[in-house]
Write a structure and sequence with these properties.
Layout (H helix, E strand, L loop, with lengths): L5 E7 L3 H12 L4 E5 L5 H4 L3 E2 L2 E2 L4 E2 L3 H19 L4 E3 L2 E4 L3 H11 L8 E6 L4 E5 L3 E3 L1 H14 L3 E3 L7 E2 L5 E2 L2 E8 L19 E10 L7 E3 L3 E4 L4 E5 L13 H13 L7 E11 L8 E4 L6 E5 L5 H18 L9 H4 L5
Parallel strand pairs: 1-2, 1-14, 2-11, 7-16, 14-21
Antiparallel strand pairs: 3-10, 4-5, 6-10, 7-9, 8-9, 12-13, 13-14, 15-18, 15-19, 16-17, 17-18, 20-21
Helix pairs in contact: 1-5, 1-7, 3-7
Length: about 350
């Protein structure tokens, strides 16, 4: 018999990584406890953008053929369960504002490997755009709210700040009056202060996003012009996102607001009159080599981390959640195509 205060896993952090990992483990019949400090996290502020083809070179995201179908299945499953639309599919128009981008766009359209992700070049009197497919955004705040309530109703959520000094490794792994087989750290940029994982090469980045009110509607597409513009409804858009590796705090700044509005102005989009109705900031848990940290501590296997997804969490987390859960439960090896997420940082 399992003792009342004995759990399989303690998950610290209820951002997208911790929430989807907890959901996956609960679906597999595991006994899970989720701990979160209740403060706004990077996922709640993030746009949740999924864009398979990125950068000046218009390159597919690594392993997108594996990651994207898993993400779509995951969000559809959650939508059916909660009877909410979490993932909003929208085409993306990428502004081709220089010769290099235009040449790369033509190259991608001619490449069969990109046929599912790029559709055509749209020429207007002022600009050319690459129409991208399989793009959209995740309503992260709504999803996390639904999952939090789900955890609360099942008695597996506790809102409090965790002091790592209260975690006991011996004689059993425990926190407060509860014991666990493993503790899984999903604490975002706060992991840079974690005594067991702070040595990992994190590179946190502050990001700021504006929500704007328009006097008349824009076309119902995502615009990418270096920054991005996402329509929330007929008269509200989100504009982002800034990157700041120096000032790592969650305070919105006039500098970022001005830079984002200037970027929008230079995009030459034909925008109606607009006003700012919200301005948010938080810190992305990015990593130095752009690879997330997924695996057990090299000398303390009862501690593990699932973190460092940065701006691609909405795309990467669902598939890696399944792989990580397999490894936790069955000691399964990762498929070779995704093994580097584990092997890059944690020796076997």
């Amino acid at each position: 018999m399992t003792k009342p205060n004995t759990h399989d896993y303690l998950i610290i952090g209820q951002g997208l990584a911790g929430s989807l990992l907890a959901w996956e483990l609960l679906q597999r019949g595991c006994n899970v406890m989720v701990i979160d400090n209740g403060l706004e996290n990077a996922t709640q502020v993030a746009a949740g953008l999924i864009n398979p083809v990125t950068g000046m070179r218009l390159v597919k995201s690594a392993d997108v053929e594996h990651l994207l179908p898993s993400a779509m299945r995951c969000y559809e499953q959650l939508s059916q369960f909660f009877k909410q639309d979490f993932y909003i599919k929208k085409p993306m128009l990428r502004l081709l504002n220089n010769e290099l981008l235009l040449a790369n766009a033509h190259n991608r359209l001619a490449d069969p490997a990109y046929s599912g992700y790029v559709k055509t070049i749209i020429n207007t009197p002022a600009h050319s755009y690459l129409e991208q497919q399989q793009t959209g955004y995740l309503q992260t705040r709504l999803l996390l709210s639904c999952l939090k309530q789900y955890f609360i109703e099942r008695g597996c959520y506790h809102q409090t700040a965790v002091n790592n000094q209260d975690i006991q490794l011996l004689p059993t792994l425990s926190w407060q009056d509860m014991s666990f087989k493993k503790i899984l750290f999903c604490e975002g940029h706060h992991a840079t202060y974690n005594p067991w994982f702070s040595w990992l090469p994190f590179q946190p980045v502050k990001g700021e996003i504006l929500t704007l009110q328009l006097q008349s509607p824009l076309p119902d597409v995502i615009y990418n012009f270096g920054d991005w513009l996402i329509p929330l409804d007929k008269q509200r858009i989100r504009l982002g996102a800034s990157f700041d590796r120096v000032h790592l705090n969650t305070e919105p700044t006039s500098q970022a607001k001005t830079a984002l509005l200037q970027s929008l102005k230079h995009s030459s989009l034909d925008l109606p009159e607009l006003s700012i109705i919200d301005h948010q900031a938080n810190i992305r848990p990015c990593t130095l080599d752009k690879q997330p940290f997924v695996g057990e501590h090299p000398t303390l296997p009862q501690l593990a981390i699932f973190n460092g997804f940065g701006a691609k969490g909405s795309l990467q987390i669902p598939k890696l959640t399944q792989l990580f859960a397999d490894a936790l439960q069955n000691n399964c090896p990762y498929p070779s195509s995704i093994d580097r997420y584990y092997a890059t940082h944690f020796p076997h």
